[in-house]
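Annotated sample (chain length 322).
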Amino acid sequence: MQLLPWQLAAAYLLDLLAGDPQWLPHPVRWIGRLIQRAEAIFHDAEASPLLQRLAGICFWALVVTLVGTATMLFVSVLTHLPPYLEHAGVVWLAYTTLATRSLHKESSHVARALRDNDIPLARECLGRLVSRDTAHLEERDIVRALVETVSESVSDGIVAPLFYLAVGGPLGGMIYKAVSTMDSMVGYMNDRYRYFGWFAARADDVANWIPARLSGVLLVGAAASLGLDWRGAWRIMRRDARKMKSPNAGFPEAAAAGAMGVQLGGANVYFGQVVEKPLLGENVNALTLDAYHTMIRLMYMTSFLALVLSVSMSLRHLIAVG
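Output written by the structure step:
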């Protein structure tokens, strides 16, 4: 099933209005529970690296198969309901793949604590958003972490879901969320997941290859729309995006850094180990709370441009088949 243009727009608006309230049923949370249970079945940390890799592939295939099957069954049931219920179900399913409002909400808790000069609370709130250790971060590095995670999440939390909803309908959107959620839960290069999570991490790299680059271009467009340094965004993205070990994260991060004239990257601590990330951008402007608020403006404008693009893709498909 392909999404109609108005269904995509309705899902986007619903995400802006409702966000991710805990009381509302949410398939991505169900996917998270499924991943936990599947990992308990497949993951044996004492097994050889080869067996762990094979188990990780089987784990990944099972989760994707179950999510895809459940989505197709749900959509099939919807087609037998009255049209208004069918449309409501499809819009709800698409809406649950988007994270614009929740990304703003969760990051704003950190910003509010910084505004109140409550560094310990800011570290605690940031720890819910990022995998890096936050216990000893000072204000500048907290802001840097905020800007980095929001800019990267523009791709995997907004642009990528809209892209896959446009090209693959609810099935495409939900499978993408399964792939992305597995990476966020097991795709780490630590002792526990180095081998078991290897395939999940590589699959996420493949799934995000196009959306990450698209996100960088859309961030340049958003910078132009907001009167920011779009030329700098384009230049820094082209210069610095491929410095990152990740094949994808550098594109939205570098574009955002260039648009705001800030420098991202540097030393982070993950699971007790210091990791030096490459520097992205130039240290023209200070990393203060103003940078975070500018990043939020960029995020919303980029999400709108991504919506326009996804609706255009859906409309083009509708015209082609109709």
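Annotation: Strands lie at 263-270, 273-281.
Annotation: The chain has a mean pLDDT of 95.
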